[in-house]
Q: What sequence folds into this?
């Protein structure tokens, strides 16, 4: 990622949209988020990889003071990426043109 993108380490929690439970949960620095104007890629060893694009995006929501939740239409799970500096994460996404909504 150059001037048109950024990368952050953090944690990830993957939960089903309905029914409760947790499929994967890891803390900092086990996950990585890479973002540019075309896609956001979240990777974590146990959870796998989530690719967010304008075509599959349902919502990006702030999750309290700790992270950002990603919902896409081609996965039945919500991915919560947590970062030590969540403001840096949300401002970086906004600067790239991704709309980050309030907590749901």
A:
């Amino acid at each position: 990622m150059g001037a048109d993108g950024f990368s952050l380490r953090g944690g990830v929690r993957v939960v089903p949209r309905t029914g409760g439970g947790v499929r994967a949960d890891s803390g900092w620095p086990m996950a990585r988020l890479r973002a540019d104007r075309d896609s956001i890629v979240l990777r974590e060893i146990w959870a796998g990889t989530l690719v967010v694009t304008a075509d599959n995006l349902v919502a990006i929501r702030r999750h309290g003071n700790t992270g950002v939740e990603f919902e896409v239409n081609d996965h039945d799970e919500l991915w919560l990426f947590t970062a030590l500096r969540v403001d840096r994460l949300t401002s970086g996404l906004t600067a790239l043109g991704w709309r980050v909504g309030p907590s749901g």
